[in-house]
């Protein structure tokens, strides 16, 4: 029979062991990614940032994919932010409780629609619709990817900025209403400015999802490794970092593999910066009101 | 007609609102159906909205409010001038003249103008109705917010409804229980269902002890400090990392280094476990933190050891939160394609999996394969049915998690 004290100690060290194991896996991923990317960075250097891509010629410029990733993410925000912010203000400030009780969980539920399903619908229906409508060169276009990614980012933006708006204490709003402001004036002058860091954190998370999205983009955007001419021609196809990795990894080895890891490191760095900034902003919202209540 | 009468003004504004709502909906419908509009119907619908604004301008002029009169007339004039552009100068909407590889067809331009003018004039019509007070602005703003909510819900539900309508006919008992025959043209998706279930199950077995154990250590044992902050940041970053990066890691680390280049269900589950680890850890941490310290202290004061307190008090009372987080993580894992594409699955001909080290077929990848056959093979109905099945499984998993959470919330 093991004594209670020994059990207690055993539990402590078991949990410590598990924690060390998981955390070392996490750091292993970071180290591994950078380690695998290193050969490409060492041998290609700034060539990685050129716009010349040709695997047979040994040219591995990632600029077109980087540009595509940024373009698609910005476009997705143009679609998602006006709709998402409007919807979250409606949800948190205007919607009757019953409607809110249905809408909020269903929007969160729809956040779980797998990206391959979005990609499938986008490629089969939206892509060909835009192709016929605008008389484009091919059904693959940045525009279709922007729209689909915008819809994909909607649930995150709505649900996170709704949380941020709900976190504004009622006293602050009541003070404004008591001074004779209408509800809309209160929303515009008090609630939104108070929740602005939480809302920006929501927008950044939405953008992070759009940049990191793989399957939907891969099926829609077309995997053409070039920057459209003129550069704002969103009716043309292109490539993104995620789609590049997904398409090339099947046959990749040697230097190309390392180049793909470099693309992975780039993605990872962009998203890491975003999630750190978003986290800081979110903390600022909660801290802002903690002292006041 | 006495334009100075407040009743008249109300009639004018409600006319504008009803007309603009009709115009907006008509425009939306004509985009969706690619309705070839005759130019007369377009002119008529725009004039219908523009004329009340001209009336409003006259009214304001009578009230000697020159600025408002000017704005109302200007808006009406801009609306009516929209007619001229695409009908009499169609080359303006052809983007090819600026080297952009597209043209905007007349009907699309018309429909878009209708939608936008419908929303804007609807918004503006509330102000005269409320005699330009702040309440009028509020009603107008609420109207815009309602429209955005409607569009958000519409966009999301449209995808679900489209898949349901197109996929429902393909789902049958045969589809669920038969092997994949001739590259997915016939037969069912039985092996893919099994594969997906095997992946989720294995992932749960791997990630649950790791994630929960880590969270328990971080919350109950670890002392706050710089090291803990670094660990938390690392977990956060890992949660936001794109799944393709996990796939890249899984492929080189698990498949190539660990399993000698052989894809397998175990390698896939390990990759998915790494993907879901931060989700499980974070949500477990949150629910452990929500257990009040009074409960821990009461248990410790009664002479229980720390381990007994965790086992008997802390974990049972945070169980719903832990379950919700884990199940949401698994829901995400079930729908992921990029990580398993390189680690666990192979071409559609696969039979049912036999061992942990065998590659499998999974629903998301099966859908991808079928999509690639579009145009070559007759796989459309099978593909839509697969999409619907995947949607049902993933949303079902998420729904159960959300129901548990809502119940738990209500209890507190």
What is this structure's SSE topology?
The complex is a heterodimer of chains A (293) and B (412).
Chain A: H1 4-44, E1 53-54, E2 59-60, H2 63-94, H3 97-110, H4 115-134, H5 142-166, H6 170-178, H7 183-194, H8 196-212, H9 215-221, H10 241-248, H11 254-290
Helix pairs in contact in A: 1-11, 2-5, 2-8, 2-10, 3-5, 4-5, 4-9, 5-8, 5-9, 6-7, 8-11, 9-10, 10-11
Chain B: H1 6-32, H2 39-62, H3 66-81, H4 84-88, H5 106-129, H6 134-167, H7 173-177, E1 180-181, E2 186-187, H8 190-221, H9 226-240, H10 243-258, H11 265-289, H12 293-301, H13 306-335, H14 338-343, H15 363-372, H16 380-411
Antiparallel strand pairs in B: 1-2
Helix pairs in contact in B: 1-2, 1-5, 2-3, 2-5, 5-6, 6-16, 8-11, 8-13, 9-11, 10-11, 11-13, 12-13, 13-16, 15-16
Care to describe what's here?
The complex is a heterodimer of chains A (293) and B (412). Chain A is an all-alpha fold and 293 residues long. Chain A has a single domain (48-290), classed as MetI-like (MetI-like fold), CATH 1.10.3720.10. Chain A is 76% helix and 1% strand. A two-stranded antiparallel ribbon of chain A has the order 1-2. The mean pLDDT of chain A is 86. With 412 residues, chain B is mostly helical. Chain B has a two-stranded antiparallel ribbon. In chain B, a hairpin with a 4-residue loop joins strand 1 and strand 2. Chain B is extended, with a radius of gyration of 30 Å. The interface between A and B is large, with 99 and 101 residues.
């Amino acid at each position: 029979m093991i004594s209670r004290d020994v059990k207690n100690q055993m539990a402590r060290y078991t949990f410590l062991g598990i924690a060390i194991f998981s955390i070392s896996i996490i750091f292993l991923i970071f180290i591994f990614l950078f380690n695998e990317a290193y050969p490409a960075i060492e041998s290609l250097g700034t060539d990685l940032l050129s716009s010349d891509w040709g695997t047979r010629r040994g040219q591995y410029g990632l600029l077109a994919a980087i540009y595509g990733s940024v373009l698609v993410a910005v476009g997705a925000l143009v679609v998602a932010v006006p709709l998402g912010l409007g919807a979250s203000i409606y949800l948190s400030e205007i919607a009757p409780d019953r409607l809110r009780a249905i809408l909020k969980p269903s929007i969160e539920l729809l956040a779980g629609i797998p990206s391959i399903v979005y990609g499938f619908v986008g490629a089969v229906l939206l892509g060909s619709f835009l192709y016929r409508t605008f008389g484009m060169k091919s059904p693959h276009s940045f525009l279709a990817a922007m729209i689909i990614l915008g819809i994909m980012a909607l649930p995150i933006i709505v649900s996170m900025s709704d949380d941020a708006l709900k976190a504004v204490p009622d006293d602050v709003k009541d003070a404004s209403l008591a001074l004779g402001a209408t509800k809309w004036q209160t929303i515009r002058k008090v609630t939104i400015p108070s929740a602005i860091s939480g809302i920006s954190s929501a927008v950044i998370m939405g953008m992070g999802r759009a940049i990191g999205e793989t399957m939907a983009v891969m099926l829609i955007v077309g995997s053409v490794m070039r920057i459209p001419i003129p550069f704002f021609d969103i009716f043309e196809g292109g490539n993104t970092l995620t789609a590049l990795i997904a398409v090339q990894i099947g046959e990749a080895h040697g230097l190309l593999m390392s180049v793909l890891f470099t693309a992975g490191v780039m993605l990872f760095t962009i998203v890491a910066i975003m999630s750190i900034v978003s986290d800081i902003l979110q903390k600022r919202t909660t801290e802002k009101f903690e002292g006041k209540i | 007609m006495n334009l100075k009468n407040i009743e008249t003004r109300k009639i004018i504004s409600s006319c504008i609102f009803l007309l603009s709502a009709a115009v907006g909906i008509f425009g939306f419908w004509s985009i969706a159906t690619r309705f070839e509009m005759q130019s007369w119907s377009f002119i008529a619908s725009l004039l219908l909205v523009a004329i009340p604004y001209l009336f409003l301008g006259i009214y304001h002029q009578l009230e000697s409010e020159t600025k408002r009169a000017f704005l109302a007339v200007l808006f009406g004039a801009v609306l009516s001038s929209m007619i001229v552009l695409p009908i009499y100068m169609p080359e303006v909407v052809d983007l090819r003249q600026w080297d952009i590889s597209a043209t905007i067809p007349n009907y699309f331009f018309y429909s878009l103008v209708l939608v936008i003018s419908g929303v804007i004039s609807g918004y503006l019509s509330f102000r005269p109705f409320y005699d330009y007070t702040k309440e009028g602005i509020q009603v107008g703003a609420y109207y815009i917010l309602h429209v955005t909510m409607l569009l958000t819900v519409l966009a999301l539900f449209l995808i679900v409804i489209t898949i349901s309508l197109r996929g429902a006919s393909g789902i049958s008992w045969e589809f669920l229980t038969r092997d994949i025959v001739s590259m997915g043209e016939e037969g069912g998706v039985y092996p893919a269902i099994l594969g997906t279930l095997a992946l989720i199950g294995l992932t749960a077995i791997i990630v649950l002890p790791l994630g929960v154990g880590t969270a328990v250590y971080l919350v109950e044992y670890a002392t706050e400090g710089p090291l803990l902050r670094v660990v938390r940041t690392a977990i956060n970053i890992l949660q936001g990392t794109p799944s393709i990066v996990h796939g890249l890691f899984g492929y080189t680390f698990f498949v190539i280094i660990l399993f000698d280049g052989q894809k397998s269900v175990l390698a896939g589950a390990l990759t998915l476990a790494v993907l879901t680890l931060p989700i499980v850890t974070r949500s477990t941490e949150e629910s452990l933190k929500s257990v009040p310290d009074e409960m821990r202290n009461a248990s410790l004061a009664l002479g229980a050891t720390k381990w007994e307190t965790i086992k008997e008090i802390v974990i049972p009372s945070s169980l719903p939160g832990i379950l919700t987080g884990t199940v949401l993580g698994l829901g995400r894992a079930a729908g992921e394609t990029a990580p398993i594409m390189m680690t666990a699955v192979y071409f559609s001909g696969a039979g049912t999996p036999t061992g942990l080290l065998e590659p499998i077929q999974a629903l998301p990848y099966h859908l991808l394969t079928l999509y690639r056959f579009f145009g070559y093979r007759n796989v459309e109905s099978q593909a839509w049915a697969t999409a619907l099945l995947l949607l049902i499984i993933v949303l079902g998993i998420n729904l159960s998690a959300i129901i548990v959470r809502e119940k738990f919330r209500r209890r507190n």
